[in-house]
Amino acid sequence: MSDTHPLIVIIGPTAAGKSARAMALAPRVGGEIISADSRHVYRRMDIGTNKPTPIEQALVRHHLLDIRDPHESFSLAEYTALARAAITDVRLRGKVPMLVGGTGQYVRAVLEGWQAPAVPPHPEIRKRWLALAAEQDGHALEAALLARDPAALQTIDSRNVRRMIRALEVMEVTGRRWSDLQQRQPLDPGGVQIIYVNLPREELYARADARLADMLGRGWLDEVRRLLAELAERGITAGAALRLPSMSALGYRELVGVIQGQLTLDEAVTHIKRETRRFIRAQDTWFRKIAGVG
After folding, report:
1. Are residues 209 and 170 in the same domain?
2. Cβ–Cβ < 8 Å for 25, 292
3. What is the dihedral of CA 131, 103, 111, 293, to 10 degrees?
4. CATH for 270
5. What is the pLDDT of residues 166-188, one digit of tens each?
6. In the chain, how many domains are there?
7. Where are the beta strands (DSSP E) in 153-288?
């Protein structure tokens, strides 16, 4: 295996231009892109997740796109194993692996070699924690984690409800702290090159707004309608669909509200813009830590 090829990691907040940077760089270095976006794994969710287009995929080989249906589960542990395998595969073929995306925990899991404990899901336990989060808010889960394992919050984003619930579930099942159960095999930092892509905050907001308008113009609302119809054929109601990990991406809840007549499109756009700005701020904080920039 040719381990001489570095792993190029391109990270940054939404709308900063990560994909464009990767697409420009890949042909120059002989690179292949490994997606580090937690929503790109889902099939038929192309517009709403801003997935690389067929033309982009034809120009540069991409990995870890379209590997699950929207109703199927996909864990961080699965992603880490698949991403590491993809890195090895790319290097074996004499190419340069490029990890690109906006899901900070995916990037950290690959770089730090997170190996989550092999504890099967326990729906009843998850249901109980979900109910707590619904009755109160994410702060209740954060407080529960803080009481049981403060160190866990060093690797879990307190805004990631599903990951907090998973940690609480595993601790309840095993009787051990989440942080004690984490095993790590970090990559050699000497073989990793991190490129942090960012823009002034107001420019990011403007670019995100323009991208939202473009996504809606390309038929995002119809894509969501087709997705809901597909899930309904499987017996999954719109309410249940919104509890799927695939549907937790920005904007889906609002567009489902439009389809159900609960929101106007203008109201949905206003809310999506607000949530996108909040997400950009959180991403910026997360990725600066990964990149080691002030």
Report:
1. no
2. no
3. -110
4. 1.10.287.890
5. 899 999 999 999 888 876 788 88
6. 3
7. 183-184, 192-196
What range defines the domain where residue 131 resides? 123-181
Q: How confident is the model at residue 41 (pLDDT cuts 50, 70, 90)?
A: very high
CA angle 258, 244, 98 (to 5 degrees): 105
In this prediction, residue 119 carries a pLDDT of 81
Q: Which residue in this structure is represented by tokens 């209740």? A: 140
Residues 77 and 214 in one domain: no
Are 104 and 94 contained in the same domain?
A: yes
Whether 187 and 148 map to the same domain: the answer is: no
Interatomic CA distance for residues 266 and 218, integer angstroms: 17
Domain stops at, among 198, 225, 248 = 198
What does DSSP assign to residue 244?
Answer: S
As a residue count, the chain comes to 294
Pairing assessment for the beta strands 7-11 and 96-100 based on DSSP bridges? parallel
Alpha carbon distance 97, 24 (integer Å): 14
Specify the pTM.
0.82
Helix (H, G, I), strand (E, B) or coil at 168: helix
